[in-house]
What we know:
With 223 residues, the protein is an alpha/beta fold. The chain has a single domain (3-217), classed as Alanine racemase (TIM Barrel, Alpha-Beta Barrel). 40% of the residues lie in helices and 17% in strands. It is built from 10 helices and 8 strands. The protein has helices at residues 7-17, 33-41, 52-61, 79-82, 95-107, 131-139, 141-144, 164-182, 199-204, 214-217, and strands spanning 23-27, 46-49, 67-70, 88-92, 112-117, 149-155, 190-192, 209-212. Bound molecules: pyridoxal-5'-phosphate. Pyridoxal-5'-phosphate binds at residues 27, 29, 50, 71-72, 157, 195-197, 211-215.
Amino acid sequence: xxxxxxxxxxxxxxxxxxxxxxxxxxxxxxxxxxxxxxxxxxxxxxxxxxxxxxxxxxxxxxxxxxxxxxxxxxxxxxxxxxxxxxxxxxxxxxxxxxxxxxxxxxxxxxxxxxxxxxxxxxxxxxxxxxxxxxxxxxxxxxxxxxxxxxxxxxxxxxxxxxxxxxxxxxxxxxxxxxxxxxxxxxxxxxxxxxxxxxxxxxxxxxxxxxxxxxxxxxxxxxx
Length: 223
Ligand SMILES: *Cc1c(COP(=O)(O)O)cnc(C)c1O
């Protein structure tokens, strides 16, 4: 018997249950390029990474019809390395970072998409802005002058807990924050929420983009 899990099978199973309005980001951080190729071979074209250097290396080795998403916290001095190719940056949480992305996008003569990361979990370790920070930011003239970055929606991470009610409340907070921000800028359409452990609940609460890693690629080894 073969107990080794199959990336292709996991991916196809997951895709078969996703509603069509939900986009799947295959989170491939820490995984070797051979694993990404398996997902690519069954049609996956959106990959998420949380470290800029690792994403650049994989970008160089993988086919060029892939959308690369940066899902991790971004240091401003690293933006330049991914600016030539990154499609969507999920963790935008300050005007300073927005300005840097705009500057590097302009240098590359392109437009980069971003999501505002909203803090929905109680834990201190999670990055993100409050709803009011996000509203203020989107109403500011500085924001309106940034022509080479487009904010397409919001991203959030729920508390790491078994308490489903708590997770549901946090996802609902993100959904309502999204609705408020959409009333400022109607072109917003992405709610990035849900990971391997909580994506069904996230979808119930209105997610339009899930970021799933270990369910597809197996547990990560951080040694
Ligand atoms: C690692 C990571 C994921 C995927 O986590 P899994 O539990 O493996 O699905 C999703 N979002 C972010 C921001 C991550 O860092």
